[in-house]
Design a protein that fits this description.
400 residues, alpha+beta, 60s Ribosomal Protein L30, Chain: A, 17-stranded antiparallel beta sheet, five-stranded mixed beta sheet, 17% helix, elongated
Length: 400
């Protein structure tokens, strides 16, 4: 996602040519040296190649995205279809995309904290705190930034930069208009070709109709949409009448002068996009809260969990996978050593149950104890039972 390049050629391309025309005394000397009897040469005859300014680019607006929740790729969609009768975030069974780092290690992604009947979702995890509506709109506190996104691509961003790269304040409308205040300066666009920019290149104003002004390193430039304009810079005041004539200096010296090209219209802000989870897609993760399979503080699978395991095993048999890992997790109650041991026993129990059903034959089983929570175990110093429940889980990481 990048902002369209907007070349504001506000340096009055042909004006500088007049500023470099030889002075009157130089013209007379040149004429007297010519010896051809044709009389003094005019400024137009001696005019040099027009001066051309470099393009000025509006900055690229940071990418804003909404986290992928469920349903990214054919393999995961097929798995979800096979598990349709048991997938229920409220009952503690979810499927989410897996993302891995360059070393192939699975990121400890966020957990789903609530999903209502309309598909609205609240999520709190390593990526940030999200409230996402079924139509794609929502809010997020992401990497220190506060973002609000509407379904039409409009929204606001306050402090969008990762690691403080660009703590910008941005407001974008669906028609491409908006404002930006960040490390690139202050930018305002109307979505129709007009806009202003106050930044390292000076102060620019683009009227969207071929006219504009620039107060910057070259001086003060004004361009009208009829080819006329003025330039007050290093060569004094230059006036272009837009009809092939102009004046240079004070008092003005009449010269021939080509009309000024129109200012290229400004671009639009791109619509706000979905958040991209960290890392590269590497499969998916099936998460089963402990209440689905175990009694509290136990590692033996309850008999009433047989249907869940039957459905899960049948679904996993249909999905091609490079590798599979059964991962046990606990909350932070108790000692770290005890929680580590409990998470390992639970992971081994799930792996054994799936193997008995003909699935996950080559899967590894590993416990992570309390080290990878997906929700806070406490809030403001108070116990958080709902968060601890989310942390007590077994994950099946299917690497595709």
């Amino acid at each position: 996602m990048s902002l369209a390049r907007v070349s504001l050629l506000l340096c009055a391309l042909t004006l500088a040519a007049c500023a470099r025309t030889p002075a009157p005394a130089e013209e007379n000397d040149a004429a007297s040296r010519s010896g051809n009897g044709a009389g003094p040469q005019t400024a137009a005859a001696d005019a040099e190649t027009p001066r051309t300014a470099g393009a000025v680019d509006f900055p690229v607006i940071p990418q804003i995205v909404v986290p992928e929740i469920v349903g990214v790729g054919p393999a995961q969609r097929a798995l979800e279809a096979s598990m349709g009768e048991i997938i229920d975030p409220i009952d503690g069974i979810t499927v989410r995309p897996a993302h891995c780092g360059a070393d192939g290690v699975l990121f400890n992604d966020a957990g789903i904290t609530s999903v209502d009947a309309q598909g609205n979702l609240a999520r709190n995890g390593d990526e940030g705190i999200f409230s996402i509506n079924a139509d794609g709109s929502g809010t997020a506190n992401f990497e220190g930034g506060i973002i609000a996104v509407e379904a039409d691509g409009s929204g606001t961003i306050n402090g969008s930069g990762k690691d403080g790269a660009d703590d910008a304040i941005i407001a974008v409308e669906a028609d491409g208009s908006g404002t930006y205040n960040g490390k690139f300066g202050i930018i305002s666009l109307d979505g129709k070709g007009a806009g202003t920019w106050n930044g390292e290149h000076g102060t620019l104003s683009n009227n969207g109709d071929g006219s504009g002004t620039w107060n910057g390193p070259e001086g003060i430039v004004t361009i009208n949409n009829d080819g006329s304009g003025t330039w007050n810079g290093a060569h004094g005041l230059v006036v272009n009448n837009g009809d092939g004539t102009g004046r240079v200096g004070t008092p003005g010296r009449a010269v021939k002068m080509a009309p000024i090209p129109k200012v290229v219209p400004a671009g639009k802000f791109p619509p706000l996009k979905k958040f991209a989870p960290p890392g590269a897609p590497c499969g998916f993760v099936i998460s089963l809260e402990d209440r689905v399979l175990f009694d509290f503080d136990k590692s033996d699978i309850r008999p009433d969990a047989a249907k869940v395991l039957d459905t899960l095993a049948a679904a996993l048999e249909k999905v091609p996978a490079k590798a599979m890992e059964i991962r046990g997790h606990t909350d932070a109650k108790g000692t770290e050593d005890y929680n580590q041991d409990l998470s390992e026993r639970r992971a081994q129990s799930v792996a054994a149950a799936l193997r008995q059903r003909g699935a996950a034959q080559d899967a590894s089983a590993k416990g992570y104890g309390e080290s990878q929570p997906v929700a806070p175990n406490d809030l403001q110093g108070q116990d958080n039972p709902a968060g601890r429940q989310l942390n007590r889980r077994v994950e099946i990481f299917v690497r595709t």
